[in-house]
Every structure is written in C-alpha cells, then in structure tokens.
From TrEMBL:
Coiled coil: none annotated. Residues 1-143 form the UspA domain. Belongs to the universal stress protein A family. This is UspA domain-containing protein. It comes from Cystobacter ferrugineus.
Length: 143
C-alpha cells in the first residue's frame, strides 16, 4: 500500500506532469506527497599539475533559494486536494532523491523524464535512469 509519494521537481514541463501524476496517485491511495527540488552543489575540479582546485558553478544565493521555494509553492498550488510537503536539498540529484526517499520513508518515487536522446543518455546518463537503478522501491517515470 502506498502511504507516501516523493515527487522530484526541477521546474521542467515533465516534472510538472510528474507532480500531477503523483497527486492523482495520492488521491487514489490516500497517500501524502512530498515535492523535492534538488539543487546541485558547485563542483570542485582538481587541477592536477598544481596543488589547486577550480570551483565550477556558483554557490546558491538566497534569491535562488527563494525562487525554488516559489516554484514549489506554485506546483503545490496546482495540486488542490493533496497534503503536500515541500523540501529543498542540495546534492547530486539522483542520489539525493533516493536518500530523501529513504529518510522520509516514501513508498513510491515519481520523476519526470528529460527526454534525452540515446546519445545524450549514454554520455550524460539521466537522473531518472539513476533513480531507477538506486531506488529499491517503485519508481514512476513520467514523459
């Protein structure tokens, strides 16, 4: 029985479809829903020949966090009859989604598919593919 659904949100159209799917599933099963937005941390790249590192990407500003919270509020407002919790985490998306599902005791994970072509998926991987591999629970990928 599904009691808690974790829906990963990134602001894309497919993640909004995933939120709607998670809401509909929650209504059918009387589960609660957690919307999760994962911000990637800045990457530290060793320079090798020097005893130095290069930081790639900006640190997260209060304005960016506020924008993410507004997005989560907007998505939650589109899910009128569900009890929705909103969470923002910083980390590698797939790993963080699975870790939060474990931490929150979510029975089911819903993610949107990015629609990468086969070449892009091979080169970059995809968050939804990695979540499917790591989750250890049912995962729905919404296209």
């Amino acid at each position: 029985m599904i009691q808690h659904i974790l829906v990963a949100i990134d602001g894309s159209d497919t993640s909004r479809k995933a939120a709607r799917f998670g809401h509909d599933l929650a209504q059918q099963t009387r589960a609660r829903v957690t919307l999760l937005f994962v911000l990637e941390p800045p990457r530290v790249l060793p320079l090798g020949f020097m005893d130095a590192e290069l930081i790639s990407g900006a640190s997260r500003s209060p304005e960016e966090l506020a924008a993410v919270r507004r997005l989560l509020d907007e998505v939650a407002a589109d899910l009128p009859s569900a009890q929705v919790e909103k969470v923002v985490e910083i980390g590698r998306p797939a790993d963080t989604i699975v870790a939060m599902a474990d931490k929150l005791g979510a029975d089911h994970i819903v993610v949107g598919a990015r629609g990468l072509n086969a070449g892009g998926r091979w080169l970059l991987g995809s968050v939804s593919d990695r979540v499917l591999q790591l989750a250890g629970r049912p995962v729905t990928v919404v296209h």
